[in-house]
Specification:
Elements lengths: L5 H11 L1 H9 L14 E2 L3 H5 L4 E11 L6 E11 L4 H14 L6 E3 L9 E3 L9 H41 L9 E4 L2 E4 L10 H6 L6 H5 L5 H8 L2 H9 L11 H20 L10 H6 L6 H4 L3 H24 L6 H25 L10 H19 L17 H22 L1 H26 L5 H6 L1 E3 L5 E3 L2 H6 L2 H23 L8 H20 L16 H27 L4 H7 L4 H6 L1 H18 L8 H37 L8 H4 L13
Parallel strand pairs: 1-3
Antiparallel strand pairs: 2-3, 2-4, 2-5, 6-7, 8-9
């Protein structure tokens, strides 16, 4: 059919190739069951169509006109047509067909939100193998070579050190005794070769053993070797899996809180991302939302406030501790450099992955959604790397869940205003934080009240606003309130103040003693407030979807103070666990099992949305949503996210952390915490 035009190809298919034409027609979309439940995804059989020679799968998007209302339903219909037919030709054929048949007048071609044409045909490859693809592929290969070469060098150095120790032992006088720990001429020697590599065996022993200058000269790695060792796969993996807790700056309960919060966010996104083109029963989600127990899924955005709280808490606690040791002096240039260097390389790597490699990870009737998202990263990547993407329309956002990074970086940039003021004058610092705090509450409450936003899960997920006629209309709640720093800074400020409180008590060696009654009341109040925030929206649902039983005043109160209540409840949890009043809750949150997963929080946050969306968008048929199927998808996606996060962390995040140490001229002998990118970073609590 290569020499035929579209008309000739269709005629030839219908008249001369009966078998192929029957298979092609069989692959067309058909009217399914569940239309009244919202099943307007008549996708047909994608795999059958693409298996036929000289044919291509295309989806036609119709708008179903409803004269009784101003709303228009969207119908997606799959067809199998000759591959010589362009999308414009198919648009013309379909338009002529609907205009010529009176029974089809209620249909009109409609371009979907994430496409450029009402007809979308699948092309192979999904993206051309351009120079960007080649360069990024070469870069990934270079990273792999560096990881393997660094691991080989590390193994060789360990072998060489053991050999030098063995040779040195043989030259010792026979009357001197030694063992796993021995003393020779009042010099302690450690000869246990099983010690871990972050406890440098050779540095100590060579200084205390009489070896030749040639032997000693070869023991110190050069700059190139130091750089190569930063990428050593085995070293970085051992740091990642190390479950020993750091030194005095480690607050163990944060590990469990961090992992549980990311899991909660992933659970919410599993259901939210489900509500997209290609779901054959979208009404199922609308029926689930008002359920009492489902409030914990819909209100997973409270976990985002948890990460804002922890980010502010760690920033304040760690920075004040360092300022106390240097009498308030700190290099603010390095303060910002450290932050940008630790999070931007991995962030940029994931964006490059989305642009150049992710388009080849799937295909299908709905894969155009993924291609659109990837193309947004290609167009607007600079907004993400400048951390300003939350100020632009959500439809143009690369990695929509990355708005959190933008807000968190913006909070970090202005944080010295509070840190310096609070360190020099507690009263002035509290005043500055309070002004920001009350300004955030006023702005948030004003926006919710003025726009009559619904603050239950319907409003949060779909940005709904009641219209004068009694129904609901879409409004830009997500862009106007949800992702804006002025509405999300409250938990961050609470975290900063909480970090300062714990720092001051630790710095002044103050002992906190609470009676059992105070502890019980504290836990009861924290539990009550937390439950109210998560499950309190249950009372707002009425019999009609997208409407709220709450008055505008109640919506304002919940939308304004829910984040404050959640932050205060979380403050008590951290406070009680830190000072020994957490009981079994603290034991659970400090469980060593959480530590490696906690170090993967940042990278898992970056990739989890991509993993979930890839599954839904590559699904070849209409997806039937249910709680059981979504739970299976959630578990599988979470495991894949952590697996990908481990690979990305070992390949990019940990090596760049090591390179920073080299650039800043730090000593090679470091504590475990200094060697781990997530144990002393104040940006380790990122998620969306």
């Amino acid at each position: 059919m290569d020499t035929m035009d579209c008309n000739e190809a269709i005629t030839h298919l219908l008249q001369n190739d009966t078998t192929t034409s029957m298979q092609a027609l069989d692959a067309f979309g058909k009217v399914p069951a569940g239309v009244l439940a919202g099943n307007f995804q008549w996708l047909g059989d994608y795999d059958q169509c693409t298996s036929l020679q000289d044919l291509q799968y295309c989806s036609i998007n119709y708008g179903i006109n409803q004269p009784q209302s101003n709303q228009s339903l969207q119908l997606m219909y799959g067809v199998c047509v000759p591959d010589v037919c362009s999308e414009d030709q198919i648009v013309q054929y379909v338009d002529n067909l609907t205009q010529s048949i009176p029974e089809l007048q209620f249909l009109s071609l409609k371009t979907p939100m994430f496409a450029d044409s009402p007809v979308i045909c699948q092309h192979f490859p999904q993206r051309t193998y351009d120079a960007g693809f080649i360069c990024f592929t070469v870069f990934c290969l270079i990273l792999a070579i560096l990881m393997l070469s660094g691991a080989a060098l590390d193994v060789f150095q360990k072998y060489k050190k053991r050999k030098m120790i063995k040779d040195s032992k043989l030259r010792l006088p026979s009357h001197q005794s030694y063992g796993s720990t021995g003393e020779t001429n009042n010099v302690t020697m450690v000869t246990d070769s099983s010690l871990e590599e972050h406890k440098p065996l050779m540095d100590h022993e060579v200084q205390n053993i009489k070896s030749s200058p040639a032997e000693i000269a070869g023991s110190k790695p050069g700059l190139f070797q130091e750089v190569l060792l930063c990428f050593a796969f085995n070293r970085n993996l051992s740091k990642l899996l190390d479950t020993t807790v750091g030194q005095s700056q480690s607050i163990g309960c944060l590990h469990g809180i961090r992992v549980i919060s990311l899991t909660w966010v992933a659970l919410g996104h599993t259901f939210i991302f489900n509500f997209m083109p290609g779901t054959e029963n979208p009404s199922a989600l609308l029926d689930m939302i008002p359920n009492f127990f489902f409030q914990a899924v819909c209100n997973a955005y409270s976990a985002v406030d948890t990460f804002f709280f922890m980010s502010g808490f760690l920033l304040s606690y760690v920075t004040f501790t360092r300022m106390a040791k240097s009498n308030g002096k700190i290099s603010w240039l390095l303060f910002y450099f450290h932050r940008i260097w630790r999070i931007t390389p991995l962030y940029a790597f994931v964006i490059l992955f989305m642009i150049y490699h992710h388009p080849y990870f799937g295909d299908g009737p709905k894969w155009y959604l993924s291609l659109y998202t990837d193309s947004q990263c290609e167009r607007y990547w600079w907004r993400n790397l400048l951390y300003i993407n939350n100020f632009f329309p959500a439809a143009d956002m690369c990695m929509q869940w990355s708005w959190y990074l933008a807000c968190d970086m913006q909070f970090f940039i202005i944080s010295p205003l509070i840190l310096l003021t609070l360190f020099r004058s507690e009263t002035a610092g509290i005043l500055v934080a309070s002004v920001m705090f009350f300004a955030s509450l006023v702005v948030t409450g004003s926006l919710v009240g003025k726009n009559h936003f619904i603050t239950n899960s319907y409003g949060t997920l779909f940005g709904l606003q009641p219209s004068p006629g009694g129904s609901s209309s879409m409004n830009n709640y997500f862009e106007l309130v949800y992702i804006q720093p002025y509405s999300r800074i409250t938990p961050y400020l609470i975290g900063m103040i909480m970090g300062y409180v714990i720092y001051r008590q630790a710095n002044e060696h103050l002992r906190v003693r609470l009676s059992s009654i105070v502890v019980s009341v504290g836990w009861a109040l924290a539990f009550a407030v937390g439950i109210s925030v998560v499950y309190g929206t249950y009372t707002s649902y009425g019999d009609v979807p997208f409407q709220s039983v709450w008055s505008n005043a109640v919506n304002v109160l919940y939308g304004t103070f829910s984040r404050l209540g959640w932050s205060l409840a979380l403050s008590w949890v951290v406070f009680a666990c830190y000072y020994g009043y957490g009981g079994w809750i603290n034991d659970f949150l400090c469980w060593s099992f959480w530590i490696p997963l906690s170090r993967l929080t940042y990278s898992a946050y970056l990739v989890h949305g991509l993993v979930i969306q890839t599954y839904y968008q590559a699904y070849p048929t209409s997806y039937h949503m249910s709680v059981m199927s979504s739970c299976y998808i959630f578990c599988g996606s979470l495991m894949l996210s952590y697996a990908a996060a481990a690979l990305f962390s070992v390949a990019v995040e940990y090596p760049f952390a090591g390179l920073e140490n080299l650039m800043l001229g730090k000593k090679r002998q470091r504590t475990k915490d200094e060697n781990k990118p997530h144990d002393q970073r104040n940006d380790e609590t990122v998620v969306s």
